[in-house]
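Re: the 647-residue chain
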Amino acid sequence: MTPKRIDHGITLGIGVDVGGTFTDAVLVDGGNIITAKVPTTPEDHGIGVMTAITQVLQAADRQPDQVGRIAHGMTVGTNALLENRLARTAFVTTEGFGDILELRRQNRADLYRLDVAHPPPIVPRARVVEAAERCGPSGELHALAPAECARVVAAIGALDVEAVAICLLFAFCAPEHEQELGAALADALPALHVSLSSEVLPEIREYERAATTVVDAALTPVLGRYFSRLSARTDTGGLPRPQIMQSNGGLIDLDLATGHASRTVLSGPAAGVIGSALWATSEQIAHALTFDMGGTSCDVALIEDGQPGRRSGTVINGHPLHLPMLDIETVSAGGGSVAWADSGGALRVGPHSAGARPGPAAYDNGGLLPTVTDAQVALGRIGTIGTAGHEMPLNRERAQTAITALAGELGLGWETCAEGVIRVANHEMARALRIVSVERGVHPAGATVIAFGGAGPLHACEVADVVGITRVIAPACAGVLAALGTLIAGERRDWVQTVLGRVEQHDYLLDRLQPLLDRARQSLGDASIEITADCRYVGQAHTLTVPWRVPEDPSDLAEAFAAAHTIRYGDANPAGSIEVVSLRVAAERPGDVPKIDTRVTGRPIPGPVAIPLSGATLWVPPAWTARERADHSHEIRREGAPQAWTQ
């Protein structure tokens, strides 16, 4: 379907974000943004997605065949990992390395607590198959015989699995044995999903490569079924097939996402960061801290000069995921986080969540446990959830009952208890903000918080107070900003290849770079290309990722590494030999970015006051003052802070 262009160049499209509690949709139609927020349907997320899409189409008075594109972000993969709802998976590795998933890095789960253990591997030892083969950095050392290949295939067939992860020694530079096994499995067991480490992550570090490939294999059948059902629904409804948001902040088509689901694990949080970057860029904010509080978690990130930070991996539920992604910090503090009293009589919040069903007590859906949302409802700061025309009233009496029960355990009055629940949650989220600011070398006092998510604007000012921030921005569509982020995101592809060469070996590095550049240009021919390299001094264990802006200049990479090393560690060694561990290439095609007018137009609104937004509520506490802006967002400042309102 040919995308339809509206007056100012924005494609008529729909962005959808599936969270743990709510599913959000945004329709951009010319200068209008229409939103919807509906309960997530955990039994089949596609039901909630289609309900939200139907609501925004009706509100915009548009028909499905007028929609040019759909972009989709979600936390479906993240939640599947957290809840271990994964496909039954087998693991194939080189003979003698069958324990790699169990041994990990041989470090303890907690440095000072011997009673804390790592979670069990996704693939138990009983479903690990060792293959008699061996490759080294220079190629094959022990051939994979046809009989051995057949034996491995038969062993996998006897395990009754849905997926298999193959990670052989040195496959990042010698992938032929993995490819042989993958082809044999595809011929013999065509219903089986196969993930090869040489395709998922052709990069050094055996455990991280193996663990990432296992995550990819275990997630892909789960998300593949979801994507298949969703595609059938959009086809039946006369809608275009969705593009899928990746953890790296870019979109890919549905087929690519279906083949490698690990790329979408942080899809929803990444979409929120991309949406926030719209306001950070429009106002030329040097340091913006995104604050995305939903029903089950809070995600924060640093945006510097309009660009979100990036990293090459994270750990989810104890399982490393070593893939390109936005630099996002997550804590288990959301509106649905359950408040409880520990054995010492202290008030605690999370990590358990009431989820979408039954949800907080205030939802009047059978939930009895007190949550952060119940504390806000009991105090009268929020009375409904949803978007205009589809509001769901919240039951204040049930919220007070749940909070009162907890207050009785703690020996507190219910109001004191409710305020305490909010305060505990705020301090947990403030810790995450410090991680992405102080630990990244940015003083939070000069930063601006961009608050979004269903609960973000409710807590943002008080969390900002904890870390010493005096300015908060709450976009008009704060409650559904992640859905908008999916729609304005561009397409992005990332490739990585371990090379292990010195910077002086310029021709060798260029030879290894060329295949990555060829793949980037074939994938997204008109995209901008970014080249970076993971470098270190010879003998170091860890690397710094630095830009390689001028590949034709042999000194460019060495100078970039020396500058980065000085910034990170305070000095550099001019005589040190520099090693390039891996090369990275990213191809990015920008999306359609709407124009917003951030001039302040409204009168001052001093706190305490609650201000309704689209899909969220902004709480302006005492000593803070809000003013509405031309784009219907709000700028909130603390008393005593410089009042440089943007006129």
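The chain has five domains: 13-81+231-266, 89-223, 268-333+428-487+597-638, 337-423, 492-589.
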